[in-house]
Write a structure and sequence with these properties.
about 325 residues; single chain; about 5% strand
């Protein structure tokens, strides 16, 4: 049996003898292990949210039967909406964690520069202590971001039976829906409402029954017709109210996302000015550190608002029962 290298000692596995590794010739050292990487052709590309949806639908036998009627289609859209939310949550948590780590790394670099300036007598120790507190806050933020990422990852794996690493980066940013498209979704939502479909099917069955009877079909009675029309109007009004609420949520999310983008742009400008001043000694380290933390916080807020806007957009399609069509899954 060969010899095994463990830290500072080579152990002879057969004789149990131990010798100082410095006394062993270099040719006796075991060769370094060779890393074998999978060919690029065998590596699976990162999955998009549409790929994740397709994977879940193919592995869920119930989803294949969900499109039999409007109620099944509604259940399918709600299920897809839940999976999309998990995808956006994982992607947002991942981006926020990377952003927070980047801010911490910047503050650590500032801390090293400030320590050198204090040693050279160019800065005060009080500024260094205050920066240490700011750096401690940044490290706590990283810990919180890791916790958020861990929770999002567990939820994603539970819903999809996939690893978070298999999900590629969701397209960054948010693309608003054209107003004409929203009107189309509103019409489809009213038409595809399960209650509306139930009333229409009931009317069709009554017509078929009357046509198959020996007596001449004279149409539904006034009472029946009034009841059907009332149910249709109630279903239509209820659906219009739900879609109006969803559209209001979407418009609010779009506005929040736009305001967040403006705040991030201002924070980026402030950070560039603070960094330039800090490099030449015109501005203090605390001012630069505050600008870095503000930029990181506002960028994380923008990521959250963008994810909410995307989910509000998906919600409009889900109410119209058109999420499968949006992701080309029908």
């Amino acid at each position: 049996m060969g010899e095994v290298y463990r830290e500072d000692v080579w152990f002879d596995a057969m004789g149990g003898r131990a010798r100082d590794h410095r006394a062993i010739a270099s040719h006796e050292r075991p060769p370094k292990p060779t890393r074998v990487r999978a060919p690029r052709a065998l590596r699976r590309p990162a999955m998009t949210p549409g790929d994740v949806l397709r994977h879940v639908m193919l592995n869920d036998p119930a989803s294949a039967l969900a499109c039999a009627d409007a109620r099944g289609l509604r259940h399918l859209n709600e299920q897809m909406l839940t999976i999309l939310e998990a995808c956006h949550r994982v992607d947002t948590a991942r981006r926020q964690l990377l952003n927070t780590l980047k801010a911490q790394k910047t503050l650590e670099s500032v801390s090293h520069i400030l320590a050198a300036r204090v040693e050279a007598g160019l800065s005060e120790c009080l500024e260094q202590r205050k920066l240490a507190l700011r750096l401690a806050d940044a490290r706590r933020s990283v810990t919180e971001a890791i916790g958020a990422w861990d929770g999002a990852s567990k939820q994603f794996s539970r819903l999809t039976r996939l690893l978070p690493a298999q999900l590629g980066a969701v397209p960054e940013g948010f693309e608003p829906v054209d107003p004409a498209e929203i009107d189309r979704l509103a019409d489809a939502s009213a038409l595809n409402c399960p209650q509306t479909q139930d009333c229409l099917r009931q009317l069709a069955r009554e017509r078929a029954r009357r046509r198959g009877s020996p007596a001449v079909w004279t149409g539904p009675s006034p009472d029946d017709l009034s009841a059907w029309v009332l149910r249709l109007h109630q279903a239509r009004d209820e659906t219009i109210g739900r879609f109006a609420a969803a559209r209001e949520t979407y418009l609010q999310a779009v506005m929040d996302c736009g305001l967040a983008q403006a705040r991030v742009a201002q924070a980026c400008d402030a950070r560039r000015l603070a960094e330039a001043g800090f490099r030449i000694g015109a501005r203090g380290a605390l001012e630069f550190a505050a600008a870095v933390c503000d930029q990181s916080r506002l960028c994380n807020e923008l990521l959250g608002f963008a994810a909410q806007a995307c989910m509000a957009r998906h919600g409009l399609y889900a109410m119209a029962l058109l999420l499968p069509e949006q992701f080309d899954l029908r």
